[in-house]
Records
---
Amino acid sequence: MKKVNKRIESRVRRHLRIRRKIRGTADRPRMSVCCTGKHIYIQFIDDVAGRTLASASTLSAEFKSGDANKANLPGAARLGKIAAERALKADVKTVVFDRGGFPYHGRVRAIGDAARECGLEF
């Protein structure tokens, strides 16, 4: 149990350290990624105005209708494409990637790569 708590505390500390450095603006919003055991959430946030410009998650109907409808690696790549399409629809072309304290590996990396393929610039 201590090992799990230590891992969560380390992630939260990393996330706070990253958030001190990263700010999203209207021109270049922050692409925030949060991964849990069951779901993945992505938001495009303008920190200056305090608004969410676009979002996507594994709970959305658009995501659930496809083949890769789980929070695994193929599902994360599919969710990254959906999120990038929604961001481009909201006129967001460049973003600051906020991995939320998670290592840039696995699902987080799949989201980033898929978003880049769809035309978002980091």
Note: The longest strand covers residues 40-46.
---
Amino acid sequence: MVKTLTGGCLCGAVTFSLEDRFKSFYLCHCKQCKQLTGSAFAANITTDKDNITWHSGQDKVSTYEHSSRVFSKSFCQVCGSALPFINKAGTSLVVPAGSLNDPPEIKPQENIFASEEASWLSDGTKAKKFPGFANK
């Protein structure tokens, strides 16, 4: 039996569920994804475009489409959290991994735009780890 996963935004205005039947999981290191996430990469999972049920706040979802590369980003109008969206080709649902409440079965399979990877990324994985905030 396929597990149902839930997700949503940080403020709770937008909630959704989908089946844990993903096709791919990639980490995108392109400049645009780094700017959109404010991080080293975007972690995106793809699935069938109809594999989503919106439970609340679909009217609070906005989508930004970038003109120079073929990608989009949907986000909550209230808190700015990344949310699932249909890719520009209209063939897949792209789910930001961080929008899910529980981890999916699939693990990252690809690093795309690796030539644009943040120069400090490998150093970050070696940095000291804390279970919560660092005590400073």
Note: Residues 31-37 form the longest helix (7 residues).
